[in-house]
Structures are given as C-alpha cells and as structure tokens.
Amino acid sequence: MIGGSGSWRIQLASVRSEGEAAAEWRRIAGRHPDALGGLSMQVARVDLGDKGVFYRVQGAGADEARAKSVCAQLRAQNVGVWLSVPSFSGPASVGRGAASSTPVAHPRAVVFGCAGLEVTPDEAAFFRDADPLGFILFRRNCDNRDQMRRLVDDLRASVGRPDAPVLIDQEGGRVARMRPPHWPAHPPMGVFGALAGRDADAAQEAAWINGRLLAHMLAEVGITVDCAPVCDVPVEGAHDIIGDRAFSRDPAVVIALARATAEGLLAGGVLPVIKHIPGHGRAFADSHAELPVVEADRAALEATDFAPFRALADLPLAMVAHVVLKAIDPTAPASTSSIVVREVVRGPSIGFGGLLFSDDLSMNALQGDPRTRAEAVLAAGMDVVLHCNGDLAEMRSLIGAVPVLSGAAAERWARAEAMRHAPEPADIAALTNRLAELLARPRPDGRERTMEEWIFQVTAVALPAIIAITLHEAAHGFVAWRLGDDTAYRLGRVTFNPIRHIDPFGTVLLPALMFFTTGFVFGWAKPVPVNFARLDHPAATWCGWRWPGRGPTSCWRWRRR
Known about the structure:
Elements: E1 8-15, H1 18-31, H2 33-36, E2 40-47, E3 53-62, H3 64-76, E4 82-84, E5 108-112, H4 121-130, E6 132-137, H5 145-159, E7 166-168, E8 170-172, E9 175-176, H6 189-196, H7 200-219, E10 225-226, H8 251-267, E11 271-277, E12 293-294, H9 298-311, E13 317-320, E14 324-325, H10 338-345, E15 355-360, H11 370-380, E16 384-387, H12 392-398, H13 407-419, H14 428-439, H15 451-482, H16 487-490, H17 504-517, E17 541-544, E18 554-557
Parallel strand pairs: 5-6, 5-16, 6-7, 7-10, 10-11, 11-13, 12-14, 13-15, 15-16
Antiparallel strand pairs: 1-3, 1-4, 2-3, 8-9, 17-18
C-alpha cells in the first residue's frame, strides 16, 4: 500500500461554499451508505482565479483497495468520482503489501522513440546500455495489433523491465497514431466541448467513455501512458496547432472534460498526461516549427491558461510546453525556464506535484543540438526529457547529458505508477454505442462538421449551380441577340458575370433555406428580358454560331406548314 493506511481520498463533487460541501456530502453519503460507510468527509479549497473558489467534497480514510472499490461502486451507479493522489511517506514507499518496501528503480531520465515497426538490433543494444525510463510511439511505429504488441514487448525486453512505460499521443481527431482500419477513429476533444454547450452532464459522460475506450485500445497492445488530455485554452486567432484538440475556450469546461477523460483513461489502466502545461492555447505559432511567444499579462494567464492545470494538479503526469510566457520569463520557453517551473508549474500558480515530461526535444522551438536542449530542460526542472524522432545518432548524443532519475523524480514516477491498475471491467460494445448516442453523430467518423467542412460542402453545391446559371442565362440572351433582339445585350445580360443573373430570393435565399432545412435545393435565376416581337421567326429558326473571329454565324430556317 502507498503512503500509509487511509491516505487515499475519493473526490465526490465540487461546490462553491463549505456549507454546500457539507450538504453535498450528506446527500451523497445518504444515498450511498454501503459505499461510503466508514469514510469521513474532507473538504479541499481550490482557487480557480476569475472562475472563483471551489470546494472539493472528498471521502477520506480509505486505503488503496477500498478507495478503488468505492469508485467502482459509485461509477456503476452513474456517480462521477475520481481518486486523489495519496500523500507519500518517502521515496521508497512503493508496493502493494501492508508493510512492504521496495527500492525505486532509477533508469535514465529520458523517453526515446524508435525508427520503425520493429526494434532493430542496433536499437536494442543501445536501449539496453542507455536504460531509458521508457519509450514513445508514433504513426511510423503503428501498423496492426500483432505488430504493435511485438514492438512493445521487444522495447521492454531491451531494457529488461516488463513495467517500462510506453507512451503514445492518442488524443482523437487529427492527433491519432493508431488509426483505422485496425483501430476505431475517436473524435477530437473539441467535439466534447461542443456537446457541453448543449448538455454539460452528457459531455462529461461522453468524455469519460471516450477516455475509457481509448484506454482499452491502448491496453490491448501494452501501452500504459497516453499523452492526453489537452488542457490548453485556445484564444481567438491563435495558431490551429491546438484548435479542436482543445475542449473549449472556457477553462471551466476544459477542467470538467479533461478530468472526465483522465478518469476514463485511469479506469482502463492507462496513465493520462495533461498537456501542455502551463498552457499553449495563446500561441500564435506552432512550436513544432518555431518558438511561440505569448504576450498576455500575468493576470490573464492566471485566470485562463493556468486554471485547468491548477484544477488538475493532483493528476500524476504532465508535459511542459515549448512556449515563452513573456510576462513571467521573456528569455526562455517554459520548458527551459527555471523561473516558470519554480513560480508557475511547481509554484502557487498551478502547484503541480507530479512528474514533468518536456515536450519533444526535436521540435524547432528549441535552439541548439539535442544534447544542449536536453541539458537546458533538465536544468529548468524537468524530470524526464522526451526525444521522439527515433534518430539513433541523436539518441546516442544524449547519453552523456541525461542522468538517471533523481530521487524526487523517481518518487513522482512511483506515485504515478501506483495510480495505474488493471482495467476495470467494462462492456466495450455498450460503451461504444452509448458514446455514439451521446454525441448523436450522423457521421461514421464521429466528428461534427468543422466550419471549414461546412464552407466546403456549401461551395461544392453552390459553385456548380452558379456556373450553370450563368452559362444558361448568358446563352438565352446571346441567342436572342443573334436572332434580332438586343434587349438582353443592352441590359448587360450577355455576360459571364454571375452577379448579373442572380435573383436575391430565388438564387440565394430560397435555396439556402431549403439546403439547411431539407437538404433539397430549388431556386431560379433572374429572367432574361426578350422582346419576342423583334425575333426573326422565333418558332422556326435554329441558329448555330462560332466563337468571334472564327467564322460567320450560320442559321437554318424552315417554315411551319
């Protein structure tokens, strides 16, 4: 057991006052006496900046087994709960026995990628000697279930640790390393934020289920850590490197849905990594390509960007952004700034106590060679560096710069591992159906249409229609002109300018209303003016023409009998 008997806390609710907290405890305990019997109430005060102060209602006094059993019972009755990280008595207090004590392993403070679908002999030899904490997989490493299972097993075998963590970025949407046809597509996190605007409870349930289904997919191939959820709060005009990867622009929505997603992952036996602490949402550049500089003042950052990470500071793992926060340290990105780490990430602004990963060292936001970058992030206070591109020469260059895990980092990792457990029983088919029901998704990929997709679909319908109308009406006017009536020509209707042929109601308003209500389109263009009295035998003349300058117009005439 971790941290001594009775150190685990069960988070039950979040309210706005201590009085409400006490009332909520009485209500929940009264409804679920079998689950909560013997536990005591504890209230934790959390300051969320401009969102105000909240009070977390917790059941205290349970050991690990009891706490997890209570959570399972309450979740089965549709009560949203989660476990709080227990207090630790020391860096060596790991294990499951009543009084056991197992020394914490100290591998090297780095997570490496690999180049392809299998571990090469050179990679295996290098990993054996380097002994990294763990590994991270990308799209280049994911082909099918059997292949991934072998790859994960071989990576762990290379370091001789069957519990070595294997990480992946499996968020859903565009950030998904494991993709159809071998794995199901999951929606981006923005879909759950959109649902929250319609039904907050449904959104939280959907986010939890999504996290549980992601965990199931990862656990099948042996992956134990998902670099999700994204807890950034994007602002208007920010670079879309975050975009729909974020839940919402409202920190409160991000907090609720990120918490639910993290708990779903944990229920499936996978550790979540909250990212990109202390916030990437205001970045107007992609840190993969260049170094973003955030100009916002400290108050704005505290109220929005930091708020989700502050509320989720009890989770075990976080990834630090390569973003400059000018109001705090204008000289360095957060990942290489000891000021940001000390004052914000570990300090009162956020108060994160778990293990810190750097974002990928290979990203162009950082300067210098890989060794220099690794030294910089470790000096700033990262616990573990990520090197993801699988370049063996670069990985070799890091060995002299990256030490083994520090005692504090090893304790944080042990604490994280203690939160990971065997997946709780779940009916995956039923959860999949329930998620589809909650999202009410008409599309097979489970995504709502983005604004870009709506524009594309409308354009795909409207543009051919406008071209057809223009050619049709111009042809009417041209034929009338060639047959003797120049009315349309004088009024500018013998033209390829579509504006001349559009009727505001018949060509624009009516078709638009029908498209968005019925999916069926009907309309008309502005009629072409023709003075039939001036036409040369309109009922008896066919006329053909050639392009101007290419020959005379020829007509064939006949008389009706």
